[in-house]
Amino acid sequence: MCVRVPSAKAEEERRRLLSKGSVDTGLKLKREEGFVLIPVLSHAETEFEITEADFIPAEGRKTYQEMAEVPEALRALLPTSFDVIGDIAIIKLKDELLPYKSAVGTAILKANSHVKTVCLDKGVSGEYRVRGLEVIAGEERTETTHVEYGCRIRVDVAKVYFSPRLANERRTMAGAVTEGETIIDMFAGACPFSIMIARFAKPEKIYAIDVNPAAVEYMRGNVRINKVENIVEPICADAREAIKRLPKADRVIMNLPHSAHEFWADAIGALKEKGTINYYEISEKDGIGERIDVLKREAKSLGFEAEARSVRIVHPYSPAQVYFSVEFSVKNKSAVKTI
Questions:
Q1: What are residue 328's phi and psi, to 5 degrees?
Q2: Could you tell me which CATH number the domain at 161-338 has?
Q3: Which of 153, 287, 304, 318 could anchor a disulfide with 283, C-beta 3.0 to 4.6 Å?
Q4: What sign results for the dihedral spanned by CA atoms 288, 291, 297, 299?
Q5: Which segments of the chain belong to CATH 3.40.50.150?
Q6: Within the chain, which residues score under 50 in pLDDT?
Q7: What pLDDT does residue 114 have?
Q8: What is the DSSP secondary-structure string of 179-224?
């Protein structure tokens, strides 16, 4: 995790972050054309873009890969990166490394002083699509507080799915929201999208929905912590049913990457005569265009026109798949004809 700062402002921002104890001093700064990448801890608060990059350890510091007590023949299989949510690290391991999971976890703790718990990620599953986690080193807990762009998100990572890799995506969307929008966040989880928008934009109202009771409990707490109770309304319900009872929206957020397409018609039905849908999915890169075409045809069959205003690769998901987003402009065709 790092902050991408224009070169002219990098030293000033580095010193500010150092004074806050937010710089990961175990890693070297990285430079790219016109920018400096400052490695930071998960609680860093900054006005600049938060992103991900691979860093070289600072002189005299070892990586967790070098420190891990595993057979030399397996060392190359150790992941080069892992998620850090608050002070909890979550790592996926190949089967060959599973007998050494405790050693891997211990090495991560030694190499990252801000990490207090290390969990093995066994994959996403179940009705609520949460990670199966096993604590392999450190404190026996899965609850933490994650900070991004000054927003505080309390979450139990074993009960509610949360991705720190979407921090910049959430901030980008908040910047695109216009004043007075009514927004429906269909699959809100612990509420990071809704809170980011409420903090950095001026929406009229955000309805944050999730079917997972644990997620909604954290959502309510996070809304209070971030002081956006007058904007964000948490709702514990199935999104399909909840949106039938809500006012029509200017924008619908569909962050359910494995099955968002199944709710496309419901999202369209939740919009005003014209509006925006922020759609997320995981697929092979070559399949993005086909998915957009399918969604546009379905919209047309429902009497709407859907145009992709922007398409972004948010981050790689696996060697073959990517996590992508599409911002659709959607209009009721009958309304278009009468204008």
A1: -100, 135
A2: 3.40.50.150
A3: 287
A4: negative
A5: 161-338
A6: 338-339
A7: 85
A8: TT-EEEETT-TT-HHHHHHHHHS--SEEEEEES-HHHHHHHHHHHH
Asked if 165 and 81 touch (Cβ cutoff 8 Å), the reply is: no
Which tokens is 164 given? 């720190």
64 neighbors 80 (Cβ within 8 angstroms): no
Which helix (DSSP H) or strand (DSSP E) does residue 102 occupy? helix 101-111
pLDDT of residue 33: 87
Q: What is the pTM of this model?
A: 0.85
At residue 336, the pLDDT reads 53
Which of these, 77, 80, 148, 139, lies nearest to 114 by C-alpha position?
A: 139
Strand 88-91 and strand 83-85: pairing? Answer: antiparallel
Instruction: Quote the pLDDT of residue 20.
Output: 74
Running DSSP on this structure, what letter comes out for residue 156? Answer: E
SS3 at position 336: helix
CATH number given to 1-61 = 3.30.70.2580
CA 185 to chain centre: 14
Report the alpha-carbon distance of residue 207 to residue 200 in Å, rounded: 16
Per-residue model confidence (pLDDT) at position 216? 97
DSSP code of residue 29: -
pLDDT for the residue numbered 43 = 65
Supply the DSSP string of 258-325, one letter for each residue: TTGGGGHHHHHHTEEEEEEEEEEEEEEGGGHHHHHHHHHHHHHHTTEEEEEEEEEEEEE-SSSEEEEE
Q: Please answer whether residues 167 and 193 qualify as being in contact, where contact means their C-beta atoms are separated by less than 8 angstroms.
A: no
The CATH number that domain 63-141 falls under is 3.30.300.110
Write the DSSP assignment of 217-248 as a string of letters.
HHHHHHHHHTT-TTTEEEEES-HHHHGGGSPP
State the span(s) of the chain assigned CATH 3.30.300.110.
Answer: 63-141
Nearest in space to 29 (alpha carbons), one of 61, 9, 47, 54? 54
DSSP string, 170-181: HHHHHHHPPTT-
